[in-house]
C-alpha cells in the first residue's frame, strides 16, 4: 500500500459527550461527567452485576465515534487478574458509520511485509485518523522476518499472504470503495504453468520462507534431495531480499518470463519482478517447469466457494476464531492459555452496516483482559452481528492520529505486522 508520509494534516474538530452507568472511575485515572444511561443501552456482561461502568464518547470525524468504557473502579490484585469478577476492564470502541462517514477502512504494513512497525507509526504513515493492530504475525518465531503474516494478507488488491487452511483462522476482507465487509475462513490455491509444455506445479505459499527438509542441508546439489519441500512465490513487497538458503530460485519478469535461475536461494527483486523458490524434491520440479515463460494462477474463495475479486480497494487481514456469526456467539472454548484472559482486539459489523473496531486492555491491575468467551460476549453486547478476534496480547493497540488511545500490556508499544486504519477521505482507486 502506498502512503504519503509528508502530507500536512488539518486539525480535526472533535465533540465529546459522556454517559455513565454508575458514578466514578477515578482510581483508574479516567474522569467523566455523570449522565443518565439511555434506556436502550446495556452495560457490558463482564464480572459482577453491581460494578461501576462509565462511558465517554468522542466524535472523531463525521460518522466516526470513539467510545471509552471503564467497568469496575478498584484495581485488581495482581494475583487475581486471571479470574477476578470485579475487573476492572478498559474497553475502547471505534464505530464507523459508512452512511455518514466520508472515509474508508484499509489494511497497511510498514516498509516491507516481513518487517514490523508500531501501530502508531502505521497510522501516521497512512495519514489515517485512527487504527488498530490487525493480523497474527510470525513475531518471535522468526528473527529475520517477524512481520510475516500468519494467514491471509491483502493490501490494495494484492494478495501478499495466503490463508493458512487452519480451522482456527477467521479472515476479515474489506471493500474500501463500497464499504462492504466479509468474514470467514477463506481458501486459496495457486500454481505456475509452463507456457509451452503445459506442465504445472502447485504453490504452497506466497511470501513465506519455504521449509527446507533436514536431509537437504548436507547435499551439495539441493535438486537431488529425496524428501519433500515447498514451492513459494515471492513479490518485491516481502523484504529487501528473498530468503536465502539451499534450494533453487527462478526470477521472472512482469510477463512471467525467466530472467535468471540460481541453484541457491536469496536475491533482490526489482519492482516489476517476482521469484519462485523451491526446496527439497520440488527444486527439480521447479527447474523443469520454469523454463522460457510461465503463467501464474491464483484463486481465493470464500466459505461458499465464491471467488474473491482482487481490486485496488480490496484489503484483508487474518484473525483467530469467529466470535459472533449472524448474531449468534460462536467463539469456542479451549484449555490452552490462548483462551485465558488477555488483551484483545476485535473487528465486527452491526446488523445495520456499521463497522466496529475494539481494543480491550489486559494483563494489568487497571484492566484485566478477557477470555475468548468474554470477548465474544462483549462483541455481542456492543451490537456486533458478526465479529472476529484479531491478534491480541501485547499487540493490542489503538491509535488516533498517531497517539496511543489504549494502554498496551507491555512496558512499551509492540511493533506489529500490519494494522487496520481508517482514512478520512474517499477511497481513490486510480
From TrEMBL:
Coiled coil: none
Keyword Signal: yes
InterPro entries linked to this entry: NAGPA
Signal peptide span: 1-39
Domain spans labelled Phosphodiester glycosidase: 250-421
Keywords: Signal
Protein name per UniProt: Phosphodiester glycosidase domain-containing protein
Species in which this protein is naturally found: Salinispora tropica (strain ATCC BAA-916 / DSM 44818 / JCM 13857 / NBRC 105044 / CNB-440)
Amino acid at each position: 500500500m502506498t502512503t504519503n508520509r509528508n502530507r500536512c494534516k488539518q486539525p480535526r474538530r472533535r465533540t465529546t459527550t459522556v454517559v455513565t452507568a454508575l458514578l466514578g472511575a477515578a482510581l483508574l485515572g479516567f474522569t467523566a461527567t455523570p449522565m443518565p444511561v439511555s434506556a436502550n443501552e446495556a452495560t457490558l456482561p463482564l464480572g459482577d452485576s453491581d460494578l461501576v461502568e462509565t462511558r465517554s464518547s468522542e466524535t472523531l470525524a463525521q460518522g466516526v465515534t470513539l467510545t471509552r468504557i471503564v467497568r469496575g473502579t478498584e484495581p485488581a490484585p495482581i494475583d487475581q487478574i486471571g479470574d477476578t469478577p470485579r475487573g476492572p476492564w478498559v474497553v475502547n470502541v471505534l464505530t464507523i458509520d459508512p452512511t455518514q462517514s466520508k472515509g474508508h477502512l484499509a489494511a497497511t504494513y510498514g516498509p516491507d511485509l516481513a518487517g514490523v512497525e508500531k501501530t502508531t507509526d502505521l497510522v501516521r504513515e497512512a495519514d489515517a485518523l485512527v487504527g488498530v493492530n490487525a493480523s497474527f504475525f510470525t513475531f518471535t518465531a522468526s528473527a529475520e522476518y517477524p512481520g510475516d503474516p500468519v494467514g491471509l494478507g491483502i493490501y490494495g488488491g494484492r494478495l501478499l499472504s495466503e490463508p493458512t487452511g487452519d480451522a482456527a483462522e477467521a479472515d476479515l476482507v474489506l471493500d474500501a470503495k463500497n464499504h462492504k465487509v466479509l468474514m470467514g475462513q477463506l481458501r486459496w490455491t495457486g500454481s505456475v504453468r509452463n507456457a509451452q509444455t503445459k506442465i504445472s506445479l502447485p504453490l504452497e505459499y506466497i511470501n513465506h520462507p519455504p521449509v527446507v527438509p533436514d536431509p537437504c542441508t548436507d547435499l551439495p546439489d539441493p535438486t537431488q534431495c529425496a524428501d519433500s519441500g515447498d514451492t513459494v512465490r515471492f513479490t518485491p513487497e516481502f523484504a529487501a531480499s528473498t530468503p536465502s538458503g539451499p534450494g533453487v530460485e527462478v526470477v521472472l519478469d512482469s510477463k512471467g518470463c525467466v530472467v535468471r535461475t540460481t541453484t541457491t536461494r536469496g536475491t533482490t527483486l526489482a519492482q516489476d519482478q517476482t521469484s519462485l523458490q523451491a526446496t527439497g524434491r520440488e527444486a527439480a520440479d521447479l527447474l523443469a517447469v520454469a523454463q522460457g515463460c510461465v503463467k501464474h494462477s491464483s484463486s481465493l474463495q470464500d466459505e461458499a466457494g465464491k471467488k474473491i475479486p482482487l481490486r485496488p480497494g480490496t484489503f484483508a487481514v487474518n484473525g483467530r476464531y469467529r466470535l459472533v456469526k449472524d448474531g449468534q456467539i460462536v467463539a469456542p472454548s479451549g484449555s490452552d492459555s490462548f483462551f485465558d484472559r488477555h488483551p484483545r482486539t476485535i473487528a465486527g459489523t452491526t446488523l445495520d452496516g456499521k463497522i466496529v473496531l475494539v481494543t480491550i486492555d489486559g494483563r494489568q491491575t487497571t484492566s484485566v483482559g478477557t477470555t475468548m468467551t468474554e470477548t465474544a460476549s462483549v462483541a455481542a453486547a456492543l451490537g456486533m452481528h458478526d465479529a472476529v478476534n484479531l491478534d491480541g496480547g501485547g499487540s493490542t493497540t489503538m491509535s488516533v492520529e498517531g497517539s496511543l488511545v489504549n494502554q498496551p500490556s507491555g512496558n512499551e508499544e509492540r511493533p506489529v505486522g500490519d494494522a487496520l486504519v481508517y482514512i478520512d477521505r474517499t477511497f481513490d482507486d486510480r
